[in-house]
Amino acid sequence: MKAPPREASPSEFFLRHLPLYLDHLAVEKGLAENSLEAYRRDLTAFGRHLDEEGLGVADVGREDLVRWLGLRRSEGASPRSIARGTSAVRGLFRFLFAEKRIPLDPTSGLENPRRWMTLPKLLSREDVERLLEAPDVETPRGLRDKAMLELLYACGVRVSELASLRLGSLHLADGFVAVKGKGSKERVVPVADSSARWVARWVSGPRAKKRGAASSPWLFPGAAGRHVTRQTVFLALKAAARKAGLDPELVSPHVLRHSFATHLVDGDADLRAVQMMLGHASIATTEIYTHVSRARARKVYDRSHPRA
């Protein structure tokens, strides 16, 4: 008598369907390679967890997902990693359900664990000014670094977006920069006049004199016809932080992006406008900056109010 076919373990099930799902994310959603690799790791780990729990994929319920996320938190995973893991698992189950590979989607109604989210670090306006003043603008590299830092803070761009900015993306006379973000989606971000002047000075000065720059499409040309790397931007920022007397371990492109958004919200900027400038797909992601501002207001109140 022929033995019945062995049911695939959860990890095998995930591994079998992962390539198709990741291809879907790459083609339909435009996810970058590093994001795809992070999703692959998260989902492979989730499949192993189901094996350890003895759960089949069709048996997974909402409580099993919450338990896994709780275990990740207890193991020291950051709120950002937990949120990404939630997104990865939700996306795969939705995909499998849409493809009729599973009878039910257990992630329906599962929210991102926002209560575990930590408030982002940020720099004060005074610290930002010290940082922006740090590069030696009398040297070609210093002027390049100055232009980089000005755009990081003035536009709140991601480090990858800054590194890959094209010369044709600049519309300085009109006061904006066209930024290509996640999923190759383009957004228009205003740029302050003072920052635009430094960028224009870089373009007409050291960049124009740089060998091969005339044929380069990049605002910040690197080696071999490519744009500068993310590492180049990081090193420039760390050097400026040290010169400004700031802890370089606490200063990063992402911290400048957080500072940009928080300072806008502190100045009563419309949250939808901030969402557009940051390139967030959801307003919920942008709302974290209202929490930052509330936390700052509470600190000021506690320090200053006579009844606090």
Structure write-up:
By secondary structure, the chain is mainly alpha-helical. It folds into two domains: 101 residues, Tyrosine recombinase, N-terminal domain (DNA polymerase, domain 1); 179 residues, hpI Integrase, Chain A (Orthogonal Bundle). 58% of the residues lie in helices and 4% in strands. It contains 13 helices and three strands; from the N terminus they run αααααααβββαααααα. The chain has a three-stranded antiparallel β-sheet with strand order 1-2-3. Helix 5 packs antiparallel against helix 6 and helix 6 runs antiparallel to helix 8. The longest helix has 21 residues. It starts with 9 loop residues before the first helix and ends with a helix.
Describe the structure in brief:
With 308 residues, this protein is mainly α. It is built from 13 helices and 3 strands, in the order αααααααβββαααααα.
Looking at this protein, list some descriptive labels:
mainly alpha, 13 helices, 58% helix, DNA polymerase, domain 1, disordered N terminus, 308 residues, hpI Integrase, Chain A
Order of helices and strands: HHHHHHHEEEHHHHHH
Give the tally of β-strands: 3
CATH topology of the largest domain: hpI Integrase, Chain A
Strand content is under 5%
The main β sheet shows up as: 3 strands, antiparallel
User: Which homologous superfamily in CATH is the superfamily of the largest domain?
Assistant: Intergrase catalytic core
